């Protein structure tokens, strides 16, 4: 009897709660509500950046995801959350191109599309002290970008070779630097 009374009381409270005229809360959702909604629960900001950027899904995606110099901003409809990126790393996403590009400052993981999707490329990233940070053969992602976690507070040059041509562009990983490189045009013979 006690259990059924408790169940009836709980059902009554739920019914009453559904009938109130209280205004919706102006309190923003908990930071991980957006993360949970997008299916990234339990993942770090770094893992989420990599998962979205490398996704084979066609752009634009059904949500917003922007990599800034120190944070990842995720949006779903009117909800937004910001996740801090590692303090010692900077994410630079590079979209080499031959004929068409777009302006980009903060890489939009959900909408940015480069010209060369799923293309074999050779990437060399060297800091201004001459230290080689990256030197490898890889493939651009389906979105035409390829991303790298680099040390913060450095400057240098990214060189990409593809299909017998190459190009280079400067980069920086200081506060306020762009996370999206769409200025690397492949024009020089390799």
TrEMBL record:
The keyword NAD does not apply. The keyword Signal applies. InterPro entries: CueP-like. NCBIfam families: CueP_fam, met_chaper_CueP. Residues 1-22 form the signal peptide. It comes from Intrasporangium chromatireducens Q5-1. Gene3D superfamilies: 2.60.40.3700. Keywords: Signal. This is Lipoprotein.
């Amino acid at each position: 009897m006690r259990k059924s009374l408790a169940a009836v009381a709980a059902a009554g409270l739920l019914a009453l709660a559904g009938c109130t005229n209280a205004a919706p809360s102006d309190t923003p959702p908990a930071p991980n509500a957006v993360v949970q909604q997008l299916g990234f629960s339990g993942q770090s900001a770094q893992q989420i950046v990599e998962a979205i950027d490398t996704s084979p899904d066609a752009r634009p995606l059904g949500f917003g995801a922007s990599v800034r110099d120190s944070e990842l901003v995720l949006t779903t409809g009117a909800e937004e959350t910001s996740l801090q990126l590692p303090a010692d790393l900077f994410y630079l996403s590079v979209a080499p191109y031959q004929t068409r590009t777009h302006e980009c400052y903060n890489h939009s993981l959900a909408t940015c599309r480069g010209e060369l999707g799923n293309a074999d490329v050779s990437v060399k990233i060297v800091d201004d002290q001459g230290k080689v940070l990256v030197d490898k053969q890889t493939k651009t992602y389906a979105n035409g970008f390829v991303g790298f976690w680099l040390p913060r507070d450095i400057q240098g040059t990214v060189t990409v070779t593809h299909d017998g041509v190459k190009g280079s562009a400067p980069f920086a990983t200081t506060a306020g630097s762009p996370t999206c490189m769409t200025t690397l045009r492949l024009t020089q013979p390799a």
